[in-house]
């Protein structure tokens, strides 16, 4: 059988394979186990801030908000 006829016959038999192409799996999908922290940073799963923002301080200390009540004498 000539090569051209083989290709024609093959495309006629396995035509169903090209109707739906499944999506590719994501990179590192089939790796088993947990990656190290450095690997997660390299892959971009963890965002590492070089200069983290300073935390805001309270205007009033907690002791002023939740101090015990003083006895009121009339």
Automatic annotation (TrEMBL):
Region annotation Disordered: where it falls in the sequence: 51-74
Sequence ranges assigned to domain DNA endonuclease activator Ctp1 C-terminal in this UniProt record: 3-38
Principal place of residence: nucleus
GO molecular function, one term: damaged DNA binding
A GO CC term attached to the entry: nucleus
Entry keyword Nucleus: yes
Subcellular location, record wording: Nucleus
One Pfam entry name: SAE2
GO biological process: DNA double-strand break processing involved in repair via single-strand annealing
InterPro entries: Ctp1_C, RBBP8-like
Protein name: DNA endonuclease activator Ctp1 C-terminal domain-containing protein
Organism this protein belongs to: Acanthochromis polyacanthus
């Amino acid at each position: 059988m000539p090569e051209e006829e083989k290709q024609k016959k093959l495309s006629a038999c396995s035509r169903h394979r090209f109707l739906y192409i499944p999506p590719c799996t994501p990179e590192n999908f089939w790796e088993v186990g947990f990656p190290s922290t450095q690997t997660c940073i390299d892959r971009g799963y963890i965002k590492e801030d070089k200069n983290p923002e300073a935390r805001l301080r309270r205007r009033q200390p907690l002791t002023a908000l939740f101090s015990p009540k003083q006895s009121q004498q009339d």
